[in-house]
């Protein structure tokens, strides 16, 4: 008996929205770097001193972004907690009486925010950030968080290499010292062509903010 096998050669259409997991579409995204942070390291007190006043302004900026339907993306180190996910990191910072608890309380994520875990300094290195930004249609990233001279600067460097426009709210980043903060902001402005300006000068919407 002859049997005929039919092979379906129809290829599925390219998925445009990460299976519904990235429903937003925006030219702009607000990225919060390492703000969910227990700060349990030797310089933690020093960084917290500068991060707490910064967090007040960043919380207001994030609120404005959400109201404008601009995607808010948390890009966070797991700080060696390799068996945890982002939710567990948030719980750790809120409930385990760590130094960074007040920072996490001011900047804890909302249900519709996105998150990316990173293993090293840059938010792009071996993470899903580039894929997420492409599916969202992002061309401009607003970079905020800690520390300005380390993870924010490294992420800005890779954003520049990915041909993204960069905006850095000068009052929504923090480092261990004002000197380190100023140096990193100047590097991003001059070398990476970032627009560095106060957060209240940024007009948030789904198109370029400045």
Could you characterize the architecture of this molecule?
It is a single chain. By secondary structure, the chain is of the alpha/beta class. The chain has one domain (32-201): Rossmann fold (3-Layer(aba) Sandwich), CATH 3.40.50. 36% of the residues lie in helices and 16% in strands. It contains six helices and seven strands; from the N terminus they run βαβααβαβαββαβ. The protein has helices at 44-67, 86-95, 101-107, 129-136, 148-161, 178-190, and strands spanning 28-33, 72-77, 114-118, 140-146, 165-169, 173-174, 195-197. Strands 1, 2, 3, 4, 5, 6 and 7 form a seven-stranded parallel β-sheet that branches. Strand 1, helix 1 and strand 2 (72-77) form a beta-alpha-beta unit. The longest helix is centred in the N-terminal third of the chain and has 24 residues, at 44-67. The model is unreliable at 1-12 (pLDDT under 50).
CATH topology call: Rossmann fold
Radius of gyration: 19 Å
| Uncertain stretches of 5 or more adjacent residues | 1-12
Task: Report how far apart the termini are.
Answer: 72 Å
Which range best describes the helical content: under 10%, 10-25%, 25-40%, 40-55%, 55-70% or over 70%? Answer: 25-40%
**Strand coverage percent:** 15-25%
CATH superfamily: Isochorismatase-like
What is the CATH architecture assignment? 3-Layer(aba) Sandwich
CATH level-1 class: Alpha Beta
Query: H/E series, N to C?
Result: EHEHHEHEHEEHE
How many domains? The number is: 1
> What's the story with the biggest beta sheet?
7 strands, parallel
User: What is the overall pLDDT average?
Assistant: 88
Shape: globular
